[in-house]
Amino acid sequence: MTASTDSDAASRVGEADDRDAYQRARARAQELKAFYGVIALYVVVNIVLFVIDMLTTGGTWFYWPLLGWGIGMAAWGVEIYGVWGRFGRDWEERKTREFMERHSPRDE
């Protein structure tokens, strides 16, 4: 192989890495956008439920949808922000790279 061929191959690998990084960043941005949208919906819907509850029954049931949906939102937030610590998003990425390196054919 010539130096030019090596350079072209390295360039293609670098471009593929850039595309992968862009795709991961874009997916992360879309994930956060969806999460923030659902948070806004959560707030609006629960305000409406609170008002309905206060006007009709005097405040006895709006807590339940607030609590149930809130638990779901908290779990999703933990997943998105990787609060799981060692087994968060970074861990998954590190393990994926480790497996790829371990099981890829080696250049000799």
How is the secondary structure organized here?
Blueprint: H1 3-56, H2 63-81, H3 89-103
Helix pairs in contact: 1-2
Description:
- The chain has 108 residues and is mainly alpha-helical.
- The chain has one domain (3-103).
- 81% of the residues lie in helices and 0% in strands.
- The protein has helices spanning 3-56, 63-81, 89-103.
- The protein is elongated, with a radius of gyration of 24 Å.
- The model has no long low-confidence stretch (mean pLDDT 82).
Concise account of the structure shown:
Helices cover 81% and strands 0% of the residues.
Compute the number of helices: 3
Give the DSSP E fraction (strand runs of 2 or more residues).
under 5%
Largest sheet: none
Instruction: Report helical residue fraction.
Output: over 70%
